[in-house]
């Protein structure tokens, strides 16, 4: 369908040198070629350039044909030829690139053909002049016919720039009569906006430094309007080699040039907001870095709208696009006085380039202006919208900076701003970045560490405060890293939770802890040593939790009452629905449940008393505060007293964590705390260390 419409348009808009069947067959081939280019794994715009060249070679050179073709490819090609890619932004980008390449190929082929004709015409002109020496009258007649009848503009000037002769086509281009043109010097025709070096180039030509030049050059007409030309200038010499005349041949390419400029603008600007796009931003950034001096600095503000996806999803993409347009205009306006480049990177991401930064304060000022501009309410139709933005700021010397590193740092800093609460800016910190990279490296190495059994379990004693008996141990996982040594859980547990690996890790800890506890029971049946295993919030939400615990108990033969599962206060308070049913089923099996770090969260006591909990483990911060008779210590002691009373009122036992001194142990006993855990009673140790304790005295604290 697209090829047929294309063929009909070509026949309607210009002369077609072949039959309609042949032209449709040819354009169908071109359509297939463009479609394959869009679908190619490794995209190149070469097929577009080739199709443009082929149109000229097929003599389809009417400007209207090119205009229709470029517009039709942009508006209908994907919908009619590749309908499955209608909403694919990558396909639209490829089609845009093919549009530009087709126009460029068409222009280049047409220019080459024109130049070829110009060269043939030039040779004919001067052949006629040479023949005039033998047959002046006949050759003059032929020359005049060619000169005056040529479709392109031709002019002859001496080496002083005085115009000797012009044909009617050239005079029409400039809006003068041929007689008026002969009163003009070439220098008067040069445009004020000519590229640097253009006059020097002409001077070199008339001084004989080279014989010909070709270029695209801007001129102005007699009425002041500007036009673009393809200009070919040749030097004619005397017999002794001295420069004599210049012959200029011009083609008005204003329409084609403006089309190319529009295509270039479209390729470098965002169609929705009109802002520079990612391509133009990186071109500008690269140019700034390349030309910067030793002391120059640069700044980047990487902006992301907070909550834009929710607006887009709930109110529709049309309203979302209108909101983006408003935000884009506000951003451009708020930095207009500073002349900073604002670009849309895609989606709801924008970037401001601060060239010649004077320091961090300068770029922070730009970021704060951007935040204020975005934060103002936006009225779109019947909707009053309020959005905020997060901004990642990078400000640094230009030396040793490259675009990729700069934008990677900006992206990292944008993530920090969002993580810190959104609606704010954050400045790049190399120390924090190094920590994040180290954290990422650990996260990447964690799955392999689990496979290589680098994660080991240590057990910390939990002791009765009254008689110092070892009654339980808490299983604590450590990472025996091949380069970093033994890492505590604070270095990697949060990473396991973020990546979802916490479930597999938790399963392995549970299985190992149950197996070790079962061996202690077999060797020391009177000790009835209980093992306590931490349960992450994600594990508590796992549908198969009860089955996993039951399997671990069955395989190891450990009685359910000798297993305790610990959940943090926040995780327990969040248990509803299936997770709560799982906890109740575990309690029904006989498994003990404990709340870890109690006192640091926000417990609903009415909800707490309905949970199948057996033990509260007091947060170590309260125990650490019990140091002596100072007022602060007395406050912490009263808090512990209140928590112990609360737990006992709910028929729950109490374990105090982080017990480090004899004084703390004595005070906890006096306050009625049931058990204690900490360095005073014993450090975390491998299973063999617990076995040794069980073989020795029951008074654990006397051996620390």
Question: In words, what does this structure look like?
Answer:
The protein has 704 residues and is of the alpha/beta class. The chain folds into four domains: 2-114; 150-258, Beta-Lactamase (2-Layer Sandwich), CATH 3.30.450; 273-428, 2-Layer Sandwich (Alpha-Beta Plaits), CATH 3.30.70; 442-703, EAL domain (TIM Barrel), CATH 3.20.20.450. Helix content is 52%, strand content 19%. The strands form four sheets. It has an eight-stranded mixed β-barrel, surrounded by five helices. It has a five-stranded antiparallel sheet with strand order 2-1-5-4-3. It has a five-stranded mixed sheet with strand order 7-8-6-11-12, sandwiched between helices. The chain is elongated and about 125 Å long. Residues 139-209 form the PAS domain. This is GGDEF domain-containing protein. Residues 296-430 form the GGDEF domain. InterPro entries: Biofilm_reg_signaling, EAL_dom, EAL_sf, GGDEF_dom, Nucleotide_cyclase, PAC, PAS, PAS-assoc_C.
Task: Please give a quick description of this structure.
By secondary structure, the chain is α/β, with parallel strands linked by helices. 52% of the residues lie in helices and 19% in strands.
Structural key phrases:
single chain, 704 residues, alpha/beta, Beta-Lactamase, Alpha-Beta Plaits, 4 domains, 5-stranded antiparallel sheet, 52% helix, PAS-assoc_C, EAL_dom
């Amino acid at each position: 369908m697209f090829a047929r419409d294309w063929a009909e348009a070509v026949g309607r808009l210009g002369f077609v040198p072949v039959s309609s069947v042949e032209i449709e067959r040819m354009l169908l081939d071109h359509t297939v070629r463009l479609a394959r280019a869009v679908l190619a794994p490794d995209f190149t715009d070469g097929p577009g350039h080739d199709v443009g060249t082929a149109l000229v070679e097929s003599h389809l050179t009417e400007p209207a044909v090119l205009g229709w073709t470029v517009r039709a490819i942009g508006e209908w090609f994907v919908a009619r030829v590749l309908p499955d890619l209608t909403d694919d932004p990558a396909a639209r980008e490829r089609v845009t690139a093919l549009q530009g390449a087709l126009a460029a190929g068409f222009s280049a082929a047409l220019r080459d053909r024109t130049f070829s004709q110009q060269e043939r015409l030039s040779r004919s002109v001067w052949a006629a002049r040479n023949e005039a020496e033998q047959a002046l009258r006949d050759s003059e007649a032929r020359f005049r016919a060619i000169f005056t009848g040529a479709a392109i503009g031709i002019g002859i000037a001496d080496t002083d720039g005085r115009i000797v002769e012009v044909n009617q086509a050239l005079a029409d281009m400039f809006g003068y009569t041929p007689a008026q043109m002969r009163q003009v010097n070439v220098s008067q025709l040069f445009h004020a906006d000519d590229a640097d070096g253009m006059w020097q180039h002409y001077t070199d030509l008339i001084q004989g430094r080279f014989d010909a030049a070709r270029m695209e050059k801007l001129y102005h007409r007699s009425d002041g309007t500007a036009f673009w030309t393809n200009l070919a200038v040749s030097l004619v010499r005397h017999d002794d080699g001295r420069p004599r005349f210049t012959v200029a041949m011009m083609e008005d390419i204003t329409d084609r040039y403006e089309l190319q400029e529009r295509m270039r603008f479209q390729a470098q600007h965002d169609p929705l907001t009109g802002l520079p796009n990612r391509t133009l931003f990186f071109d500008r950034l690269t140019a700034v870095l390349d030309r910067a001096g030793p002391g120059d600095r640069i700044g980047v503000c990487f902006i992301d709208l907070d909550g834009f996806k929710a607006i887009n999803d709930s109110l529709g993409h049309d309203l979302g696009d209108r909101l983006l347009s408003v935000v884009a205009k506000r951003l451009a306006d708020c930095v207009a006085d500073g002349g900073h480049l604002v670009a849309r990177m895609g989606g709801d991401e924008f970037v401001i380039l601060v060239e010649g930064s004077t320091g961090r304060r300068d770029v922070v000022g730009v970021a704060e202006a951007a935040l204020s501009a975005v934060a103002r309410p936006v009225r779109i139709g019947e909707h009053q919208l309020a959005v905020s933005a997060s901004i990642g700021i990078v400000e640094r010397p230009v030396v040793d900076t490259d675009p990729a590193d700069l934008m990677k740092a900006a992206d990292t800093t944008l993530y920090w701003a969002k993580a810190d609460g959104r609606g704010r800016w954050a400045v790049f910190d190399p120390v924090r970045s190094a920590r994040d990279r180290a954290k990422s490296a650990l996260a990447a190495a964690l799955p392999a560490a689990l496979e290589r059994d680098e994660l080991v379990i240590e057990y910390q004693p939990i002791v009765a405060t009254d008689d110092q008996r070892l009654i339980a141990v808490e299983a604590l996982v450590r990472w025996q890293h091949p380069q970093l040594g033994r890492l505590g859980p604070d270095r990697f547990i949060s990473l396991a939770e973020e990546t979802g690996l916490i479930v597999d890790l938790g399963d392995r800890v549970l299985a190992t802890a149950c197996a070790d506890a079962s061996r202690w029971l077999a060797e020391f049946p009177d000790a009835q040593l209980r093992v306590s295993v931490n349960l992450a919030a994600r594990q508590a939400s796992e549908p198969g939790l009860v089955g996993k615990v039951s399997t671990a108990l069955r395989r190891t033969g450990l009685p359910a009452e000798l297993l305790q599962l610990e959940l943090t206060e926040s995780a327990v308070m969040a248990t509803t629905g299936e997770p709560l049913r799982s906890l109740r089923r575990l309690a029904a099996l006989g498994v003990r449940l404990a709340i870890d770090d109690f006192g640091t969260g926000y417990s609903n006591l009415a909800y707490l008393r309905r949970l199948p909990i057996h033990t509260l483990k007091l947060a170590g911060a309260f125990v650490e505060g019990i140091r002596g008779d100072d007022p602060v210590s007395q406050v912490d002691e009263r808090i512990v007293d209140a928590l112990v009373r609360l737990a006992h009122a709910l028929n729950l036992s109490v374990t105090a964590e982080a017990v480090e001194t004899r004084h703390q142990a004595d005070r906890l006993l006096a306050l009625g705390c049931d058990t204690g855990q900490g360095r005073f009673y014993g450090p975390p140790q491998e299973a063999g260390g617990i076995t040794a304790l069980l073989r020795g005295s029951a008074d654990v604290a006397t051996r620390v």
